[in-house]
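Weekly sync notes, structure subgroup
Attendees: PM, AL, DS (notes)

Item 1: joint prediction request from the bench team. They want all two components modeled as one assembly rather than separately. Inputs as received:
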Amino acid sequence: MEDPHLQDIELFQKHVANSFSDLISSHSDEETHDVTPLLSASWLRQLLDTFLCCDAEFKAIILCGRDPTQFSKPPLDRLIPDHLDRYVKALDVCNAITHGIDLLINWKRLAQVVVTSLSQKPVGEGQIRRAKKALNTLLASMNLDDKEYSGGSFHGKSTERSKSLGRRVTGPGNFRSLSCTVAKSWSAAKQIQAMSANISQPRWGEANGPATVVFIMNTVIVFVMWVLVAAIPCQERTGLTTHFQVPRNLSWTQNIIGLQEKIGDEWKKKEKKGGSGLLQEVVKMEKVANSLMEFCENFVFPLEEENAGELEAQVEEIADVCRKMEEGLEPLRRQIREVFHRMVRSRAEVLETVEQIGKQSAPVPY
Amino acid sequence: MGGISVIKTLIEEEAELIVNLEQIIRSLESNKRLGSGSRKMIANLGSRLINIAISSEVISPEVDEIEHQLSMIEAEIKSFDLEEPSTIWDSGSEEAYAFLKAVEEAGRLTKILESRNSSRKDDALLHRAHDLLQRGMAGLEQEFRRLLLQNWEPNMEEETSFQSNDEDNADERSITWIRDSFEEVEQGDISFHESVDCAIDLPQEVILFLKNIANLMYRSNYGHECFHVFVNARKDVLDECLSSLDIEKLSMEDVSRMNWKLLNKKINKWLRAIKPFVEGYLVSEKSLADQIFGEIDSVSSTCFFECSRASLYALINFSDAMVISPRQPEKLISILDMYEALSNVIPQLATLYSDDGLCITKECEDALRRLGDCAWATFVEFRGAVALHSYANNGDGGVNPLTKYVMNYLRVLADSRKTFDELMMELGHESSATVSPRISPQRELEVHVDEESYTTPTQRHFRSIVTMLEWNLNEKSKLYKDESLQHIFLMNNIQYMTQKVKDSDLRTILGDEWIKKHNGMVQHHAMRYQNVTWSSILAFLRDEGINNPAINFASRNLIKERLRGFYLAFDKVYQTQTRWIIPNEGLREDLRLSISSTVHHAYRSFERYFQYIREKHIKYTLEELEGYLSELFEGAQASLHGSLKK
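Output from the run, pasted for the record:
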């Protein structure tokens, strides 16, 4: 049963394979210039670009010039609604990620305080205390368990605004509970798991048809969301790596699997230490922050010459991370919003095409 | 000799005095909280000491002056216990500003010391100055946060009244889907809570104090902390504002699966919340940010953007959740309401986010467009349902549920006609040119015929919907095998439509011409019915062929035959058509009357032949016939007026 779009389908597979190959090589150490480190903000943006391209190609193959009656017959009659449902779940992941990025921007600001205070010469107790205060808040927030990242100050939260003399709890834990739009019971890991369920690999007879196209797109979207969740802190991510298996026997999945393994390994290493995520800039920031914290705790006035050099280097390092985050996070946030909107639109377009098939009886809810 | 010893004693005494003074100072330092009176006295003392110092030539003015000033600053700063929940502001505005001044002084001194050629003494002083500055700033930061988070007015509690009294009225504008027990719900108003004061509750003098803190923090390179505290604090506040407006966090998935009744409630909450949120809370937040950061370049708009973004997204995401939820025609009215509400606040949003936040305004505009597209798609869905719905006819020829649904739907939709018009013009769907592909071109033509008389999109689209309904009804009528019933059916349904139009706003939309035309159609079907059913029956009572029955045996037979045929046919009609229904009382009576009078006329005329036949052939009197006729179209409730005679 050959699909007239067979050529398109093969091209699609090739494009996917190539795009992910680019993603792998863009961070490889062999390049000496313009290395985009894996899981850095700019690498993630590249990943999202890849996703948007795949989505566009997918829509073209599925919608253009296709006999509309195919949508009411197997396999598309089952695959399409399932696919659309997966998109809805992805929308929620995008929202969680957007708020995760807000958290990262907060961390960046705290790091900037550290930079400002420790750049002031001569370094005295005042500056150290100032830096320590910011580092404390920063590290506490980074080490917070995902489970404690419960919803913001909506119904029934403990930090009630009370009258006159009242105050909110302003401990470090509070910085996780930034206003976010995620319900208390929502879990990123469970969401990814739900998304990866039922991505049925096409059976033998369907391999050259639209079922393959849908399968590719499903795999891509779940992978992309999985990467985002691993990189950026969001609610409840325990057990992330176990939830998603990509079939090994297909040509175009090799690069994806490669990335998945690499990222999965990193995730396993970090999992026990708390949930600041794998974003490359954040990993770096955490490392320097910890080191600076140690420095601050052992500080004795006045600062020795040899230590001064060391301090300056680390301050410069964290300042550099701040700069990268300053440049990278806002565009990333905007792009996630764009992906969100694109998925809403894609969903509407597919739905419209399918609905035009003309239902003889009552509308079928999708 | 005595003179020198006097001086020596004086110096010793002085030294002793100074030592004592030092002790006093130390003990005062360790006193965690000094009353304001005491502090005033100390300050006084301090300046007097300085004057003494200045007037003596022994002490070098500069360094020591700085040292003294630092001591005073230290005293001031340490007079507030910054570890405990500090209440700088609550100690009174004078004290608060004194504290602020002290910190400012510390900053100034650090700058002075930094610019000097450093000596060791200077370094120590600089260290101390920085130390004091940091302590002061930490205190200010804390106070800044506390004041921003504090609940200044009790109206937060009153706002819980938002939590709906209207829980029960929530589906007041909904029409339950045809599948459920069919209910017409009266339209009501969604009350908008504009009376609640959604403005900043910080008193003016507090804002001024905060402004001074902000200015100082930015001047002294503590801008990052200031920004950070502000954004996080006000973000929390806005979160609570949303919460007080009864907006919950719902995932896209939740919304897309929600049942209509619950979803309708959430939509109503959203509709009630969006205006007060944007025009109340957001406007006052912007104003607060402007007042506090007004003198610091570009910080104000960035602050506002960052702290309001998340809660605004929460509102906008809900509208997108609506867009992706399954298309159901009953959602159309809610979507139009949301469209209207959102488009009403966009100008305000554009003003609020004119610098940094342009992207937010664009996002809202895009969300609006998507809502509009969704509204159109839902309308198309509705239209499709009208054309294709295959709801079975009732056996009694009564009003089809589809007719009721469509007319009631249009009646309620008419309320939103202004928004509907605007939206259709925006989307370029002013005329109903794009009719469902399932309808034949001929029918399409008929739809367009009187479009010239309809000017607004609402008129045109409604016209096309009712035409489609008529077409569907025509098709449905063909499912009845009995032609009479077909006409009864059409008569009933068109009459229902016409009545609905007459009795509501639809009158102004579809127009009197339409009503007239359809009244005509009702009459037409009534006449056709009469023709089809009764002409053949009454034909039995014709005179033809009856010649001279007095003597003509054949004619007498004919009379008997005709009468028998008439009675058979009549009985049949009676048995069948009493179970038919004409719900509209006036129509029913009119038709019965009409039938009755024709039957009466024909039977009475035939009665002159009765003398020629035996009584046993005469089954019914005229009165009895009329009695039976009065039972026609009773419907299922028909209780037969005695059973028919055998």
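Discussion: The radius of gyration of chain B is 45 Å.
Action: AL to compare against the crosslinking data before next sync.
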